[in-house]
C-alpha cells in the first residue's frame, strides 16, 4: 500500500521457489533503499541486513522478518552471520527463506560487483532474483556519491509514475565443486544474473568502495582509481618489494617531481608495458601531460598503510615534500601535503601551519605538527585508525 500510494508499481515475473527448492534467495543489483520492496515481493523472507539499518523506521519493520543482522566492519560478526545462514538454510524447522543482497552495498546498476560468499557457504540451491527500475528518469539510485536518501525519496514521489520489475530466475543448483568453493559458487551465480540483466561484471567489493570513498574524502591523489592503482602495482610486482617506500627513505631531494612515462619507468625500475602506461596516466596532469610523482607516492602509501593511523601517511608526506632534506616544510609545501592527505583548502592549511609554527620560524617539522595536532580535538582522527574525516582548523 505504501509503494502504491507513492506512485510505484511493482511487477513480478517468474515464480518464487519454495523453501524446500531453494532455501536462499540471492537478490541483485542492490541500488536503492526502495529495494526493500523485495521483502514484500518474496512474502516476508528473512533479510541479511547491516546492523546500522536497525535504528531507522524501515529497520523496525525489518525486525518482523526475523532478520540476520551483521556488522560489516567486524570480522567476527561476519563469521557469526555465515554460521546463522548455514543453520537456517539447512534447518528442518520452518524458517522463512533467507534473502541476501550479495553485493553488500549499493551500486548504480551498470554492472554487478563481486558477490560476498556468505550466502553460498551452505552449499544449498539458491534462487537468483533480479531488480530493475525501467523509468525514464532515475530517481532511486542511492550510492556512495550523489543525492541523499531524503532527496531521492522526494524526487521519486514527485514522479507521476515509477516502476520496479522483480524477476525470479530458475533455481541454481550447485555442483560438487561449487559446494566446496563458496567463492566459485558466488561467481557463477553472478554470471547467470549478469547475463539475465544484460550488464557486465566487475570485481569490486564493498571494502574496495569503502577504501575509494575514504581516499576521495581525504583528498588522496587518484582517489577514485585507488583500487586500480593497487592492481597495476601488483601486475608490475611493485607490491612485492614496496619499492616506493625505499625511494622515500633514501631521500627524494634533487629528484624531478614532474616525470615523463620513460622517466617514471626508469624511476620505478620497470619496463614500459600496458600496466605501466595505465598507472602513469592515472597521475598525469593536463595540459602539461606529465605525472606529478608525489601524487603517485601518496596514493601508494595510502594503499600500503590504509589500516594504520593517518599520521603515518603524513609522516611520509613530510619526507616527500621536504625539498631541503632537513626534515621540515615551509608553508607552500605544507599546503600541498595538507590538500592531499587532509583535504584542506589553503586557508585551513594556513591556519594549521601557523598554529604548529609556535616559534614563527616559517617552517614546521613533523614532530611540531604532531605536538600541535595532539592538542586539537578536531585532529584526533589523524592519530587513530579511522582517518575518514575532513577537518576545519580555526
Automatic annotation (TrEMBL):
Pathway: Phospholipid metabolism; Lipid metabolism; phospholipid metabolism. GO terms for molecular function: lysophosphatidic acid acyltransferase activity; O-acyltransferase activity. GO terms for biological process: phospholipid biosynthetic process. Pfam families: Acyltransferase. Signal peptide: none annotated. InterPro entries: EF-hand-dom_pair, LPCAT1-like, Plipid/glycerol_acylTrfase. Gene3D superfamilies: EF-hand (1.10.238.10). It is found in: Membrane. Residues 24-134 form the Phospholipid/glycerol acyltransferase domain. GO terms for cellular component: endoplasmic reticulum; membrane. Keywords: Acyltransferase, Lipid biosynthesis, Lipid metabolism, Membrane, Phospholipid biosynthesis, Phospholipid metabolism, Transferase, Transmembrane, Transmembrane helix. Belongs to the 1-acyl-sn-glycerol-3-phosphate acyltransferase family. This is Phospholipid/glycerol acyltransferase domain-containing protein.
Amino acid at each position: 500500500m505504501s509503494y502504491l500510494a507513492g506512485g510505484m508499481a511493482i511487477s513480478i515475473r517468474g515464480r518464487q521457489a519454495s523453501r524446500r527448492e531453494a532455501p536462499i534467495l540471492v537478490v541483485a543489483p542492490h541500488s536503492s533503499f526502495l529495494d526493500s520492496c523485495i521483502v514484500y515481493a518474496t512474502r516476508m523472507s528473512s533479510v541479511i541486513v547491516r546492523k546500522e539499518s536497525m535504528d531507522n523506521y524501515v529497520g523496525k519493520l525489518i525486525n518482523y522478518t526475523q532478520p540476520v543482522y551483521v556488522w560489516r566492519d567486524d570480522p567476527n560478526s561476519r563469521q557469526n552471520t555465515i554460521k546463522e545462514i548455514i543453520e537456517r538454510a539447512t534447518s528442518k524447522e520452518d524458517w522463512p527463506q533467507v534473502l541476501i543482497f550479495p553485493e553488500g552495498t549499493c551500486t548504480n546498476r551498470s554492472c554487478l560487483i563481486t558477490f560476498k560468499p556468505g550466502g553460498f557457504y551452505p552449499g544449498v540451491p539458491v534462487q537468483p532474483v533480479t531488480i530493475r527500475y525501467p523509468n525514464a528518469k532515475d530517481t532511486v539510485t542511492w550510492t556512495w556519491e550523489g543525492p541523499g536518501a531524503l532527496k531521492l525519496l522526494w524526487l521519486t514521489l514527485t514522479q507521476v509514475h515509477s516502476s520496479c520489475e522483480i524477476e525470479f530466475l530458475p533455481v541454481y543448483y550447485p555442483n560438487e565443486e561449487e559446494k566446496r568453493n563458496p567463492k566459485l559458487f558466488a561467481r557463477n551465480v553472478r554470471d547467470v544474473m549478469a547475463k539475465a540483466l544484460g550488464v557486465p561484471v566487475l570485481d569490486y567489493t564493498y571494502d574496495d568502495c569503502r577504501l575509494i570513498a575514504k581516499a576521495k574524502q581525504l583528498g588522496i591523489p587518484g582517489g577514485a582509481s585507488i583500487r586500480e592503482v593497487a592492481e597495476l602495482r601488483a601486475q608490475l610486482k611493485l607490491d612485492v618489494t614496496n619499492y616506493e617506500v625505499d625511494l622515500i627513505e633514501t631521500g627524494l631531494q634533487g629528484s624531478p617531481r614532474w616525470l615523463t612515462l620513460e622517466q617514471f619507468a626508469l624511476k620505478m625500475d620497470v619496463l614500459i608495458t600496458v600496466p605501466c602506461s595505465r598507472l602513469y596516466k592515472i597521475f598525469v596532469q593536463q595540459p602539461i601531460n606529465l605525472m606529478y610523482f608525489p601524487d603517485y607516492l601518496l596514493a601508494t602509501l595510502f594503499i600500503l598503510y590504509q589500516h594504520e593511523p593517518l599520521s603515518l601517511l603524513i609522516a611520509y608526506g613530510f619526507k616527500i615534500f621536504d625539498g631541503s632534506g632537513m626534515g621540515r616544510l615551509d608553508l607552500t609545501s605544507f599546503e600541498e601535503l595538507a590538500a592531499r592527505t587532509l583535504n584542506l583548502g589553503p586557508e585551513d592549511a594556513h591556519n594549521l601551519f601557523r598554529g604548529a609554527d609556535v616559534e614563527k620560524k616559517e617552517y614546521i617539522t613533523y614532530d611540531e605538527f604532531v605536538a600541535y595536532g595532539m592538542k586539537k580535538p578536531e585532529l584526533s582522527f589523524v592519530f587513530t585508525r579511522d582517518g575518514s574525516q575532513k577537518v576545519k582548523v580555526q
